[in-house]
Amino acid sequence: MNHTKPLLITSLVVLFAGGLLAQKPQPKAAGIEAQGYKWNAEYGEKMEAMKKKGDVTAGEEAYETCAACHLPSGAGRPDGTFPQLAGQHPSVVIKQIADIRAGLRDNPIMYPFAITLTDPQQLANVSAYIQSLPIPHDNGKGPGAELATGKRLYERDCQTCHGANGEGDASKFYPVLAGQHYKYMLRQATDIRDGRRRNANPDMVKVIKPYTDKDIDAIVDYMSRLQMPDKKAAAKKK
Predict the structure, then answer these.
(1) Architecture of domain 4-132 in CATH?
(2) CA-to-CA distance for 126 and 130, rounded, in angstroms?
(3) What pLDDT, in 10s, does the model give residues 162-186?
(4) Do 170 and 87 touch, CB atoms closer than 8 A?
(5) Which residues pair with 169 in a beta bridge?
């Protein structure tokens, strides 16, 4: 295996990000708490990118910048620093990148890379490529201590939107959860409950607001074990 290219990309990304952060900090637009803001408002580049047909081949080239953090496979990192992207709905990827660019989601690490996708077609391309990547089975999982509680909470509160297998709903911008890392989801769920994820769906905020830390840990632990049964899922390692 040639390790030179990934290392080179990583080095360039770090230098590039540092330069961009020094030149242009992430804006902070009003989030869901602002009067009149709609969670999935139809604004500018998001809607333009949604209308484009993504080119997977072109998207692979654009994804090279993303690969330094999210890995070439799109598997992300089990420590929760970078989420698993592989197999995610293009609508979800487009919305999140557009929200970061618009200052509706706070992600200063991602922001320097999000602003490089200035063309809606580029955004559609990289989103199409990400969806084409097989969802991994060897994601970071939780401790497995309260799975019965997690299953009960998931089936009661989450399954209607995210599906029995964590498949999400592209038409409603509900993300794929299958294959996502426990530590990443734990951080996001806690941030949503505590109001730190400003572009969170208000319906989800209402559902998760009463959850205790123990509840969140249980449901996220269960979610980290969800797997897609269809051909998008990668073959399990023997």
Answers:
(1) Orthogonal Bundle (1.10)
(2) 6
(3) 999 999 999 999 999 999 999 999 9
(4) no
(5) 174
Q: Where in the chain is the domain with CATH 1.10.760.10?
A: 4-132, 147-223
What is the per-residue DSSP string for 75-90? ---TTSSS---TT--H
d(CA 205, CA 21): 30
pLDDT band at 220 (very low <50, low <70, confident <90, very high): very high
Residue 223 φ then ψ, to 5°:
-65, -30
Return the amino acid letter for 219: I
170 CB burial (10 A radius; 0-12, 13-18, 19+): middle
The domain defined by 147-223 folds into Cytochrome Bc1 Complex; Chain D, domain 2 (1.10.760)
Residue pair 171/91 in contact (Cβ under 8 Å)? The answer is yes
Summarize pLDDT for 64-123 with one digit per residue, the tens.
999 999 999 999 999 999 999 999 999 999 999 999 988 889 999 999 988 888 789 999
Supply φ then ψ for residue 119, to 5 degrees.
-95, 125
140, 202 in Cβ contact below 8 A?
no
